Amino acid sequence: MKARPTLQDVSRLARVSTATVSRVLNEPDRVRSDTRAQVEAAIAELGYAPHFGARALASNRTSTIGAIIPTMENAIFARGIQALQEELAGAAYTLLVATSSYDADREFQQIQSLIGRGVDGLVLIGEDRDASVYQMLQERAVPFVLVWAWRADAAYPSIGFDNRASAVEIADHVLDLGHRRVGMIAGLTDGNDRARLRVAGVRDAMAARGMLLRDDQLIEAPYTMADGAVAAHQLLAMRDRPTALICGNDVLAVGALAAARDLGLSVPDQVSVTGFDNIELSGAVTPALTTVHVPHRRMGQTAGARLLAHCRAGEALTGAAFKTHIVERESVGPPPR
Amino acid sequence: MKARPTLQDVSRLARVSTATVSRVLNEPDRVRSDTRAQVEAAIAELGYAPHFGARALASNRTSTIGAIIPTMENAIFARGIQALQEELAGAAYTLLVATSSYDADREFQQIQSLIGRGVDGLVLIGEDRDASVYQMLQERAVPFVLVWAWRADAAYPSIGFDNRASAVEIADHVLDLGHRRVGMIAGLTDGNDRARLRVAGVRDAMAARGMLLRDDQLIEAPYTMADGAVAAHQLLAMRDRPTALICGNDVLAVGALAAARDLGLSVPDQVSVTGFDNIELSGAVTPALTTVHVPHRRMGQTAGARLLAHCRAGEALTGAAFKTHIVERESVGPPPR
DNA sequence: AGGGTAAATGCAAGCGCTTACAATTGGCAT
DNA sequence: ATGCCAATTGTAAGCGCTTGCATTTACCCT
Fold first, then answer.
1. Which tens digits make up the pLDDT trace of A135-146?
2. pLDDT tens by residue, A197-226
3. From CA A167, how far away is CA A220, in angstroms rounded?
4. For residue B336, what pLDDT is reported?
5. Is residue A298 exposed (0-12), middle (13-18) or buried (19+ Cβ within 10 Å)?
6. pLDDT tens across B191-214, in order?
7. Cβ–Cβ of B56/A55 closer than 8 Å?
8. B314 close contact with A: CB closer than 8 A
9. A30 touches strand D (CB under 7 A)
10. Does residue B270 reach within 7 angstroms of strand C, measured from its CB?
11. Per the CB < 8 Å rule, is A116 touching B49?
């Protein structure tokens, strides 16, 4: 077990000062090419790799961006994270991904942990979080952007789309077809603005037609197919069975599809089902899911680009609004009869 | 912009030495409870969080385990990673996840980067990698385990299952039903032992029956549904059309399902399709996929447990073999006629 | 050759934390 | 009270790297 070589070992081998070695690593053109070659040879011979912690400590920067997503269990955030990572990699920045399991406390811990790790910036999902969190972020002067959220009057740089407006759109789509009895399976809205605003959007669309989403027509469910199926069962067992199920996300919608199949109900003939997010899964199920496409990759990429511009060029962090659009597939049709 | 509070700030506020603060953070019972309370109050008041790099530098450990997976784009590794993370969290260890995009060089970079970050251990997927990588790992004395792989004569601690044997099993399942014309859609086998061994297993099963997998009956495809669909189209267009498509993983299998639907072929009546991995998706598609269930969570959990035992108790790293089993769903039936 | 300037390199002071070791304190038996 | 031991707490030396400043070197002009 050889000890890990240090900058000093390298400097000794190359017969230069540690400062020079450090320069070779960080600003190569500030050292003469023959010294540089010498140093590089020593580095190679020793298999030297800088100690990240020491560097972070000394320089107070890490070339690292942190992102905290609710979960990795399903593909919701995967594409966006991938795009973010690609964007950062292009600038030799590293992405640290942590998960909160949709838990506010856990998210806070992870934020702390990432700050402790010295991230130069943070990407957070959505905007619902305790004011104290934002306060801490600002006191610590940690640059951050919010993704998957956007409002005209957002208090923080948000890169995303208008969840509420998009929900109105998909609800309109359903309502325009003539559906009058609808049920909604929403994600857990507590501390989750995406879920909350999507419900609000559906309510808006219904209200615009003088309709109302009754309490028993709305079920909140955790983020799994099984929970979506349970909720759908419950909704579809009602005396005035809904002719359309509007789901807060694709995973729940796929669960709803399964429930309909269990009950022998044909989709979309007897009941229509809509999703939200357009994850890969949605196109693979039968019937393929009509859903709202959200700009996964563009959000990730833009978040990365903005953060980089801020960290390297000092540009102010600003938000960005993207559009969503409905992807019409096979799970929606006019109401029966 | 307040500067980040340091241990010293806390010690000052609490009127104790920095050593004491450090102790309440690391070995709470070594400090008297009233001093501890005092320090904790100061920590809370300042919103202090330790500087990770400084700690790593001073203590030479990070309580961090790194994992490098090929991709986050699909759910293949998600469950295992989640389980790993949970296991580690229980011991106050942090998981750093990096992705290699199925690229050996990129994986090597990521290993370097994680080592530079001072991870106490590493979790790697599969065993196919350059000897120099293993050599480096050993020179640096970085503890690591391999998951998703297992062989009786494995050179390194492997926690997984026998891909080849499992492939034999699923192939037998298909062959036992009477299929004689089979096609295989494999993942890219280059540098990917899982994909390679699964092909080998299918060949074994066929050989045991005096059959042979012809070159034109085997197509390798990248890890996407679309690629699976393309490959399936090609296979199903052959004059002696296969009656069964054995796929190297579920994503490809779902693509194959879509291709069959495109071609108006009923699954499993006209063509059977099998998957491998049993990701959540497999149960949601229609027809539901018959596939090989692999112990995602147990692998992740065990990998974490072994690494922890090694880091904390010095236990030697050993491998573990798990069993897979076939999940019979709806995509496999006897050959037509 | 001498002088001046810019480029290249070295010096050394930390960055925030852990930890061996030293100093102090408290409790208890004598 | 006195003495002793164990429990607490403090002191201070780094951990490996970056970086402002000082020093040396190289090069060009006169």
1. 999 988 899 999
2. 999 999 999 999 999 999 999 999 999 999
3. 16
4. 94
5. middle
6. 999 999 999 999 999 999 999 999
7. no
8. no
9. no
10. no
11. yes
Residues 173-232 of B with CB under 8 A from A: 225
Angstrom distance, A180 CA to D16 C1':
68
Q: Is the N-terminal amide bond of A295 cis, ω within 30° of 0?
A: no
Q: Which residue of A has its CA nearest to B6?
A: A116
Q: Which two tokens stand for residue A53?
A: 């912690």
Question: From CA A182, how far away is CA A174, in angstroms rounded?
Answer: 9
C1' (D2) to CA (B23) span, angstroms: 33
A284 touches chain B (CB under 8 A): yes
Distance linking the first and last C-alpha atoms of chain B: 77
Residue carrying structure tokens 């112990």: B295
- As ranges, strand C nucleotides with an atom below 7 A of a protein CB are 7-12, 14-20
B53 closest CB neighbour out of A52, A75, A280: A52
Q: Parallel, antiparallel, or unpaired for β B182-187 and B244-247?
A: parallel
